[in-house]
Structure prediction request, 150 residues.
Amino acid sequence: MTGFLLLKWLHVMSAIVAVGSNVTYAVWSTRAKGEPEHLGFVLRGIKVLDDRVANPAYGVLLVTGLIMAFTTYTISTRWILTGLAIFVVMAVLGAAVYSPTLTRQIKALDAEGAASAAYVAADARARAVGMFLGLLAVVAVLVMVFKPTF
Prediction:
């Protein structure tokens, strides 16, 4: 096994862990709506997954991708730059919008309950941003796999 194949495997595995974790958020949220007594537990679980599983995996994904881009490919290749641009947008939206919204959602649930205007607004925003981030992740994976020559 070459160092490149090991690095590529680590890169793919971290993408699976990161995106796979993110996909579960919608499933957990939907299930919790059917059992509102578990909503706080579910939201805190999503926060732990995001902070301690998905985001570190995205970090490994970035590092391994950059190593491959500088050692095996050319960093200025358009598909690599496109993937990096999508990654940056996802990172900024995740850090500046999604994570703070999830925190506000948990606080609103604890303070005012799931029927409160603050909770409903945070839930709607988290859902919308989460769907957009999911779409971006799908596009990023598509670009990395198919390596378009646009």
In short: The radius of gyration is 17 Å.
